Amino acid sequence: MSLQAQPYNFHIQQQMYQKGVKHMCDNGVTHVPTKYILPEPERPRNLAIDGCIHLPVIDFTRLQGADRPQVLASLSRACQEFGFFQLVNHGIGNEVIGKMIDVCKRFFEQPYEERQRYMSSNLYAPVRYGTSFNQNNDSVFCWRDFLKLSCYPMQDFSSLWPSSPLDLREAVGDYSTKTRDLYQSVMEAILESIGVTNESALCEDGNQLMMVNWYPECPQPQLTLGLPPHSDYSLLTLLLQDEVEGLQIQHNAQWVTVKPIPNSFVVNIGDQFEIFSNGRYKSVVHRVAVNSTRSRLSIASLHSLHVNNNVTPSAKLIDESNPILYRDTNFADFLNHLSSSDFKSKRFLESRKLH
Ligand SMILES: O=C(O)CCC(=O)C(=O)O
Ligand SMILES: [Fe+2]
């Protein structure tokens, strides 16, 4: 190879990575390029070796009935010990969920030119197609393409959602409305479980963002990750995963794989709620492992405070024995953190801790 050929190839490869993993797979990739290879200690172990975990299960129907006090107690334990739970009997119909999963898969199966229309490196863009975690900054890329859709208020955003597949806007509209209603009921229960009521800013008028994650089959899944360890900048995330496992959470200093339960949501506490609860409920670090035989789709509905609102520890949870632990924060702080190069070495939440 001539001396000049190297930088040229390097440039071509960089362009290829920026187009995403689906594009690379469509072009017949047979091994994981160096750009995606993690240092050994950060690599996942075989999914079959890492333990599986059955997260606490919360039955939404029981939450609405005479059993509410017992279910609230289980909810409180789950949010303190795991930061995660699985929500069953949530009332969102199979057709709404099935249509959403199907249309999202069809979005990613379109030719690159169609998906690329929504590509943007601007983290503020309300609709954005992209790859990796933060492709502007990631030194090691991850095996994931995504479509981000701002969803609330819907009339401000729905005309910006992809126009192809033709039924995408209708499916996202139905799904985001239903998940938003479900979020409000679950958040009311979470607030009640922590002994704080009348917090309408946490239930209404906030921000709703849909992250549709596509993890194509990966030829060497033991070398890379679909998503690196992170916690969500949200109050609460409602995650829908298809039947393919891959989500791992950190529990008792171990990575454990969450076993998908059909027709359920994985719900997790985000950074904003950990701050609001002054650390009582935990925003837990999680990551995604990929596999060599099956692509995987997940759809995270992230519910946060309105972008202009500060999140601050609730005065009702602060007293002499529970001193305030976090500084106030807002969405701009988070985006600054995300675009700073040191975000991997320090978690956003850590940067907000007072002591
Ligand atoms: O794909 C998953 O299971 C998790 C996705 C996730 O953590 C996220 O979108 O923040
Ligand atoms: Fe996440």
From TrEMBL:
InterPro entries, alphabetized: DIOX_N, IPNS-like_FE2OG_OXY, IPNS-like_sf, Oxoglu/Fe-dep_dioxygenase_dom, Plant_2OG-oxidoreductases
Major place of residence: cytoplasm
Subcellular location(s) of the protein: Cytoplasm; Nucleus
UniProt keyword terms in alphabetical order: Cytoplasm, Iron, Metal-binding, Nucleus, Oxidoreductase
Listed Pfam families: 2OG-FeII_Oxy, DIOX_N
Recorded GO MF terms: metal ion binding; oxidoreductase activity, acting on paired donors, with incorporation or reduction of molecular oxygen
GO annotations of cellular component type: cytoplasm; nucleus
Occurrences of domain Fe2OG dioxygenase (ranges): 205-305
Its job: Involved in the regulation of shoot development and salicylic acid (SA) homeostasis.
Family matches, as PANTHER family: OXOGLUTARATE/IRON-DEPENDENT DIOXYGENASE
Family per similarity comment: Belongs to the iron/ascorbate-dependent oxidoreductase family.
Stated name of the protein: Fe2OG dioxygenase domain-containing protein
